[in-house]
Amino acid sequence: MGRAVGTSVRRMDGDDKVTGAAKYVDDLSFPDMLFGATIRSTISCGEIVNTHIGLPPEFVVADHRDIPGANHVALIDPDQPCLAEGPIRHYAEPVLLVAHADRRALFGVEARIRFDYRERTPNYDPERSDTCFKQIAIDKGDLARGFGDADTVIEGEYRTGHQEQLYIEPNGVIAVPGDGQITVYGSLQCPYYVHKALVVVTGLAPARVRVVQAETGGGFGGKEEYPSMLACHAAILAIKSGRPVKMIYDRVEDLLATTKRHPSVVRHRTGVTRDGRMTAMDIDVVMDGGGYATLSAVVLSRGVIHAAGPYRCDHLRIRGRAMMTNTPPNGAFRGFGAPQTQFAIEAHIDRMAGALGLDPLRLREINALRPGDTTATGQTLGKDASALPVLREAVKRSGYKQKRRAWQGTNRGIGLSLFFHGSGFTGAGEVKLASKASLELTATGARILVASTEIGQGTRTMLAQIVADAMALPYSSIEVHAADTDAVPDSGPTVASRTCMIVGKLLERCARDLRRKLGKLTPAEYFTRHGAVVVTAQYEPPPGQVWDDQRYAGDAYGSYAWGCNVVELEVDPVTFEITPTHVTAVAEIGRAIHPVMAEGQIQGGTAQGIGYALLEEVVMRDGRMANAQLTNYIIPTPMDAPLIDVAMIERPYAHGPFGAKGVGEMPIDGPAPAVVNALRHCGFDVRAIPATPERLMAGKLKVEELAVESFS
Amino acid sequence: MPAGASALSLARPRTLKAALALLAEDPELMPIAGCTDVFVGLHFGTSGQRRFIDLWGLDELRGIALVRPEPSEAPVLRIGALATYTDIIASALVRRRLPMLVAAAREIGGAQIQNRGTLGGNVANASPAGDTLPVLAAANARIVLRSAGAERRVAMGEYYTGYRTSVRQAHELITAVEIPPVAGRQWWRKVGTRKAQAISKIMMAGVRGPVVRIAIGSVAPTVVVADKTARCLSAGGTLAEAQALLGDEITPIDDVRSTREYRHQVAQNLLAQFWRETE
Fold first, then answer.
1. Between the N and C ends of chain B, which has fewer C-beta atoms within 10 Å?
2. What is the ipTM of this complex?
3. A184: domain CATH number?
4. Would the CB atoms of B199 and A631 count as touching at under 8 Å?
C-alpha cells in the first residue's frame, strides 16, 4: 500500500497545538485544588538536625513521615528518598512539601522554613569519589597483542560538561486523590515509570493508581525519570490534604533541581599502524552520576558500548564507571551516554590522523565498520551497517576535500564526525521490558492503545501512519488513545529511540493481525457484526539476537542508525567567537516514516548538539548551578544555528516497521566532535566542551606543536 | 521564587510634573518604564522593590530631536529618556549623528526587548553590562536630571559612583540624554554570549577624531572611560603602548558569563580592531 508511510501527512496534534486548544498540565484545574511547593536543602552534603517551620495552619505541610508506602523513588536502585529523612547528598534535595489554596501564598514560602544542618565536606570530583554506582567492563580479543601489532600508541583525554534538556514546558503534575486511589496528570515521557513509583510511595495496589499524560511541551529525556519524583510529591500532599494538588516548577527550580546530561572524562590509548589501521583500543570512561543512582547505570552502559565509535578493532578493552558526587543527580538526556563517548573517540581520531600525517577522512575510511564486521561487544553487523555510505555522502555533499585544502591555515575550518546509535533498549533490555501494544477496532477504523507519549516528536502521527498502511486504511481513520495507564498497555518508556522501531513494529503486527480478522469486511461492517475487538502484540526479539550481560558481549541493539556530520565554521581572531556557518548532516535511519518529522528530528538534534559543543555550560559553584536562568544558560537562538543540510539514506532494517530504525537521539552524537575537529583544522586544540571563546583562547596551539605533543 | 503580585503597588502619573511631585513626596518609589530588567528582578526575587511609579505614559519624555540648550552652544542630539531602542534604530537623526548608538541598540535583546526597553532605563539601571553606556560615555553625553524644583546636567563620565550606583537623587528623574556633536569616526562592538538575546561579556565604543575617546563595558563596576589609553593614541603612541595602558584601566572579574583573562585579552584585541578599522 504505502499510502501514509513515507509521506509527510498532517500532524495529528498540530491543529490543537497551533490554535492553543491543546491542554498542558498547567491548563488543567480541579475543584478545591491546592498548589504545592517543594522546600529543598541548601547544602550539598551533611544532614538535617532540626527543622523550624513558621507557617500558619492554612498551609498543608508534609515530610517523609507522611509517606504511606516506602520512601524512595522507584527506578533502578532504591537509593533516592522521595523526601530526605536526614542525610543530604546534594543541593536542592527535596525535604518538605507545602501546599496552599492560593498559588501566590507560596511565593517566598521557603524563607519561612529553616533547617539546622550538620555539614560534611562535599565531593564534586567523580574521579575522587569513593562511591561507584556502576562499573562495566568490555573486553574483545587480546589487548597486549593488539598493542604489539601497533607502530605507535596515541593517547588522549576528553571532557564533556553538564547539559540541560531545556524542554520549553517545565516539569509539572497534578495529583487527584479519590476513595483509596490516586490519579496523576503530568508532563511526562513514561506513564508506567510514574505508575511504578506511585505504587511504591503510596502503598496502594497498582489498580488503584492511574497516570495520565497531559499534553507535554518537550522532554529530551528530562521527563523520563524526574516526573516520578514530582508525581510522588504531589501525591503525598494530595493524600495528606484530601484535595487535588498541582505542582508546577518555574524555570529556576527546574534548572536547579532536575536532571542534566552526565559530565564525562574519557581517556583513550590507541595502537595504530603507520598506514592507519587501529590494532588496539584501550578506553576508560568516567561519568559523574550526581547524588543518587537514578539512571546512571544504563547511561553508562550505552556510553561504553558506543565508546569505540563506528570502528572495527579486534583487540579492545573498555572500562566504565559511574561515580557519585554531591551534585543534583544527572539522568536521561537525548543520546544517553553516547554523545559523551562518541565526542571522545571522534576528537581522538582527528588527533591520531594529525599525528600520523593522514587526513582524518582517510583514517575513518580505513577503520569504519562494514557489514559483517563486529562491534566492540562482538555484534556482527548486518547489511544495513552504513558507516561508509553516510561518510561518502557527507563528504560529497559538503565539498569536504576541497574546503579542507582551501581553508588550511585560515580562520575557517571544516571538520567531520562519524557516528552510530543503537535503537531501543540495550542488551536484554527489550526482552525484560516485554512491551505490549494494542489496537482496537472502531466503527470507522482503529484506535491505537499505547503508553508511548507524544512529546512533540510526532509519536501519534508516526504510529498512526504505520497502522494505516499495515491495515490498508486511510491515515485519517486511525485514532490514538491518550496515554492513560487505566486504558493502555505498557508499551514501555518513550526513550532510547525505541518508539518507532519497537512500538511501531508491535503496532504493525497488531494491524496485520486485525486486518486478517477483518477479512474482506470494512471496519464498519465488522464492527456492526462483532462489536469492538482489541488485538495485542508483545515484544519478541528478532531471531538469533543474543546478549550476555555478565561478559557484556553480544548483540547490544537490534539495529543501529548511522550518521556523519560535516561542520564548517569561522573563528573570529579578535574575540575567539566561533560561528558555525554550515552543517551537513547525513543520516541512515532505515526508513523515514514521516520525512518532514524525521528531518525535524535531525535538524533539532543537530542544533542541540551545536549548543552542546559551543554554548551550553552549566556553571557549578559549590554543587549548585550558578546560572540557573535562561539569561545565562545559553542555548542557540536561530541566529546561532547554522544552515543544516540534511540528507537521509534509507537502508531498511528487516525487523523495523516498514524498515524503520530509531532517529530521535543519533543526531546529537555528531555535532560536538565535528565542531572540535573543525576548530583543530583552524589550529585550536580543544579537548573539552563546550568550546567557549574563553576555552578556545586558552587552547590556541600551532599545528606543529600538536603533532609533537600527540606522541607523548 | 517570584515576588507575589499582590505585594506590589504602582503609581501612574499622567504628566511629568505629576510624576516629579509624587517622587518629591515619596522618594522610595522606583521609576519604571519598559521594565525589561525590573520584571526579571521581581521574578527571580532579587529585587527588594515593592512600590513603583510607571513613567511609560509620559509622552513628553519620548522625543528625539536636535536642540540648543544654550543659544551659544552648537545643537546637541537630545534623546528623551523614554525613547525605546526601536525608536533609536528608526531615527534618521540618530543614524546620522550617532551611528554607534544605533549599532548598539540593534544588538540589545531581541525585537520584544527593543520595543520596550528605553535609553533612560538603560542609564538608570546602572548595570556595568548596559549596552548603550559605553556609547554614551564615548560620545561625551550628558544625563539630564529633573526634580520638582530643578534641572541639572551630569556628564556621563561623572554619572556613576560605583556598582549600580549613580549621582541621581531619589526624587530626580532622568528626562533625557544630550549628545554633543561627535567629531571623528565612530566604532562599536559588542561581544555577547551568543548572537542575539545576550548579555554582554565585553563591549567597546570608540571615536577616532581630533580627540580619541574610548569607553568599555562589563570590565569594571561601572562603564570605563579609558582616558589614558585614548590620550596615548591621540598623542601618536603605538598600539602596543595603548594596549598596555588599557590593561591597567580595566578591572574585569570572573562571572557566570566569562573570565577575567578573556576580558583582558579581548579588550586589547578590540582596541586593535578599533584602531585598524578606523584608519
1. C
2. 0.94
3. 3.30.365.10
4. yes
